[in-house]
Amino acid sequence: MGIVNVTPDSFSDGGRLYTNSQVDISKTLRTVENMLLEGADIIDIGGESTRPGAAEVTNQQELDRVIPVLDAVIARFDTIVSIDTSTSTVIKEAADRGASLINDVRALSRDGALKAAVDSQLPVCLMHMQNQPKIMQSAPTYFDVVNEVFEFLMLRKQRCLEAGIESSKIILDPGFGFGKTLAHNLTLFNAIEKFTDTGHPILVGVSRKSMIGQILGLENTENRVIGSVALALMAAQRGAKILRVHDVLETRQAIDMWQSTHF
Ligand code: 7PM
Question: Is the Cβ–Cβ distance between 180 and 130 less than 8 Å?
């Protein structure tokens, strides 16, 4: 899954798809085309910056950022488009326009989001986050991070099933970097198998995140590519089915080398 962040301020690719404070559609399409040529199977389009400390966006701002890009990508490419949103109106609009997957860092907890997802009949990715982006990294605390994240996801999954989403349409994601310290992230990473054991596809998003910066002593996110690829490969080896990444070519090469050893 290639990340397309349509935000002026996203953490590693901030404003890259903007020209004069406007989303640059042709630049975005070139980015998407490259990701597809590099071997992405899914394009994840998001218009809300969920980086630590990020300010909230209004529904209208999010729609204005994301819908023109979604329309352009769907018109131009034959690919699976995922929409990274927590907002019911964005879920509805995106589904009507041909999105194939709803990726919600708030696990469909916002008003109307669960109903919009049910109505869309699309698969959903439910992610764990402690607190909201604005404060999530101030003092994340858990008694038992693995069990708490797991129980949260099981609860959200149950809500989805009760609301009418088929079990086979539910993807789970432990939410690396979302209200978690380095130690929490590493403990969760070591427990990926607990999540894959549920039988649901697991999505892992560690690309260029601070856990890599902290371990390797890298402030600049552009220098975190090798660490990101290493973690993505390990996640895949532990059973993760979807890797949400900035660096499609590098990740694909690592996965292809590993896959070539199974014969
Ligand atoms: C810190 C946390 C900085 C997250 C930047 C981000 C995920 C996601 C994002 C993830 C799923 C970024 C993000 N991360 N959706 N959306 N899983 N499902 O890298 O890990 O753009 S936002």
Answer: yes
